[in-house]
Amino acid sequence: MSVAASAKLNKMVKQQYLDLPQGDEVQATYVWIDGSGEGLRSKTRTLDRELKSLGETNLRDGCRRIMSLVEKEQPWFGMEQEYTLLDSDGHPFGWPRNGFPGPQGPYYCGVGADKAYGRDAVEAHYRACLYAGVKICGTNAEVMPSQWEFQVGPCEGVAMGDHLWMARYILHRVCEDFGLIASLDPKPIPGNWNGAGCHTNFSSHDMRQEGGLKAIEAAIERLAKRHHYHIRAYDPKGGRDNARRLTGHHETSKIDRFSAGRADRGCSVRIPQAVGEEQRGYFEDRRPSANCDPYVVTEALVRTCLLKEEGEEPAHYSQ
Ligand code: ADP
Ligand code: MN
Ligand code: MN
Ligand code: MN
Q1: CA angle (244, 246, 252) in 5-degree steps
Q2: Which one of 66, 152, 198, 273 has the fewest CB atoms closer than 10 angstroms to its CB?
Q3: What residues does ligand 1 touch, defined as CB less than 6 Å away?
Q4: Which of 73, 151, 208, 283 has the most ligand 1 atoms within 8 A of CB, as the residue to mutate?
């Protein structure tokens, strides 16, 4: 297993510097989404100087505008971020150098050194998110070895994107300390291995009230009519990334066909078992890719499910 040079540095040596008194100075780390729409960058400044705006382009503004139109509906989201831990050379963490680990089956929610690869980073990330005020609400080991998931939510409106992007930043930063890479590629290992998605759970005020299942079903009918619009919005390459993942196998639906069902993980959209029983709650859109932009995904859901007039195709997708 290769170890990143920076991970070999003794972290206890750093601690004596972190313990030095700082006086009243505060360090502020500014985090932004880079030009790829997928990557994150950061820089740090001492807070008493004004931060110059970097004029960055991201899709938060459009999301915020659409969310402001539906404020009364109190749109809630919860996103399930799947990711894969890689060694610093890109090899899946803990996988044998020649060949493959045993087939999928024991790894999902697995416990034990032969089933859970890299839990140190997962637990450190969870704590760091709680400390930072990120609304992380759970974590689990995924189907493919060295693949994990954390959930963020429920968050209202544009806050969903804010919290998920910050959770991703913290993940990359924590992994850096361990000499690991957190990959959000939707299909990091081709073949008979699960891909990585970012299931998006959504509810409006009406859906959460008694008998809200009707509102959920109405939203799903609208979604059925706009499948391709959503596929374009659900990965940063307008559907090309998800084409590798949404094969109809490995608990996914086929990319070219919309389907909905109860408690069926092979559907585009799923009504969770408990929601069907209580006749209210939320639904789960299983299509977004692990590397989706949560601002774009949540905006698309609100446009289709909650805006009165259909249409207003966003300008930023060409395909
Ligand atoms: P799964 O069974 O698909 O693995 P998880 O437990 O991983 O589901 O994730 C469920 C997600 O649903 C969480 O992010 C949670 O915040 C979110 N959620 C729960 N209730 C609601 C709701 N009423 N509206 C929107 N999201 C919700
Ligand atoms: Mn989940
Ligand atoms: Mn999952
Ligand atoms: Mn899910």
Answers
A1: 140
A2: 273
A3: 76-80, 137-138, 151, 153-154, 199, 201-203, 208, 281-282, 284
A4: 151
109-127: average pLDDT: 96
Tell me what pLDDT residue 263 has.
74
Torsion angle (degrees, nearest 10) of CA 133, 126, 292, 145: 180
What residue type is 117 in one-letter code? Y
pLDDT of residue 7: 77
Contact 152, 138 (CB under 8 A): no
Answer whether the bond into residue 154 is a cis peptide, omega within 30°.
Answer: yes
* CA nearest neighbour of 214 among 310, 281, 296, 308: 281
pLDDT at 315 over 50: no
pLDDT band at 56 (very low <50, low <70, confident <90, very high): low
Percentage of the chain with pLDDT > 90? 81
Sequence length of the chain is 319
Provide CB contacts within 8 A for 180, sequence distance 6+.
4, 7, 85, 86, 87, 88, 93, 118, 121
Q: Which of 149, 180, 167, 173 is closest to 81 using CA atoms? A: 149
Q: Rounded to whole angstroms, how far apart are CA atoms 47 and 68?
A: 31
pLDDT of residue 2: 53
Q: 81 C-alpha to center of ligand 2: Å? A: 8
- 243 and 255 Cβ atoms separated by less than 8 Å: yes
pLDDT (tens digit per residue) in 252-274: 999 999 999 997 889 999 999 99
CATH architecture of 5-305: 2-Layer Sandwich (3.30)
